[in-house]
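Q: For a teaching handout, I want to show students what a protein-ligand complex looks like in token form. Below are the inputs, and the small molecule is uridine-5'-diphosphate. Please produce the holo structure.
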Amino acid sequence: MSRRSTPHNTRRLAVLSTHTSPLARAGTTKAGGMNVYVADLSRQLAHIGWEVDIFTRRDRADAPDIEQLAHGARLFHIDAGPRVSLPPIEIAAHVAQFTEQVDQIAQDEPAYDLVHSHYWVSGLSGIELARRWQTPHTVMFHTLGAVKEVFQQPEPSFRIAGERRVVACADALIAATPHERAFLIGQYGADASRVHVVPCGIDLDSFHPADADASRRRINAALPELGVMDGPGILFVGRLEQAKGAELLVAALPMIASRPEAQLWIVGGDERDEPERQRLRELARETGVEPRVRFASAASRALLPDLYRAADVCAVPSAYESFGLVAVEAMASATPSVATRVGGLASTIAHGKTGLLVGDRSPDAFAHAINQLLGDAALRTRMGEAAAADVAVYAWNNVAHSILDVYERLLSGREGSPSREPCCPDAIESLLVAAS
Ligand code: UDP
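A: Here is the structure, written as tokens, with uridine-5'-diphosphate included.
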């Protein structure tokens, strides 16, 4: 079969985002930081001149075969398993089929120079495709099963086994923080020389300081349900799942005495999350703060910068965040965050300088920190300005070039040492059989 040709010197990247599409609506069920990251990084690399093809499992019948994400970046929807949304652990059972389909498409395309997999399910496919195509394989996990277990969220042992296999076989692992790198080495036995820390990127052309009053007016027009003109705003942005902690903020609200008129804006989720919103409303009713808790479903990327600027404080009471894009997006918009001292949040926020970190994940502790910021406008301004001045390191231009450095090192053969654990196809095969 003849391969399509490509201009000389153009690098070609296959991106695997098997379990979720980069175009899925961020802030709903299983779509969040990883989706935003894959879409943004792919656009950046395409802008730099790479040809990027992203492969995701088709999770709805009407998804087209190919979508153009940007000039030079395409998204392929691959048939593997039923054309409905499935939990990642069930998707693992369709990884072999996914892998075959991607390989078949690749036969008609110019060869890929490198495979970059996101999340462990993609990593399983990536191992096999990189072996067939004889290309280096880079992996970013975004979340790790063993980390979730530390936070009392049991994960299937099959996931951990799959992650271990991906760690052993990948040529390079990208960790978003030094903490994640240490975890990969300490808990997963990763070879330290293959784990590179590159933070997540933020679109600083969108997320930047600007007139907060104008932002409030625009948000008031676009999301009237938030009632942003009714008082200072404490903003929660994220998926409405327990680990994100919206409930904790509802419980903290009656204790926020410095500005008793403060509102809690809970932004995220879609119609599937109505039961969770009802539960949060009920909780607010019990403590008499229901009128001050406002909801809006997941906001578009275009609205988010205004939303952060309209808020006085952004609260991120998560049980864990491997990076925590929301806090950094808020920082870039000059809105200080109050966040749990965990994972990525502990390294992106400088406590007392660009935001406040809370060690005790309780309503009292969050109320205390939010009170401190809401009650002191000068402190808020100072921290907001310091936060916005601290985010240059997350500019996509820098981040994309750091990722390219990792790729180029692999491509020039300086890494991917032959002494690494041999990645026996049988081992992958047995994992895939176990999965299905
Ligand atoms: N997000 C969004 N609209 C929403 C809620 C969230 O676009 O209504 C985006 C948010 O801006 C961020 C991502 O979803 O870029 C969430 O990433 P984060 O790392 O904070 O959390 P994750 O979802 O990955 O756990």
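A: Two things your students might notice: Residues 212-393 form a domain with the Rossmann fold fold (CATH 3.40.50.2000). The CA atoms of residues 224 and 296 lie 9 Å apart.
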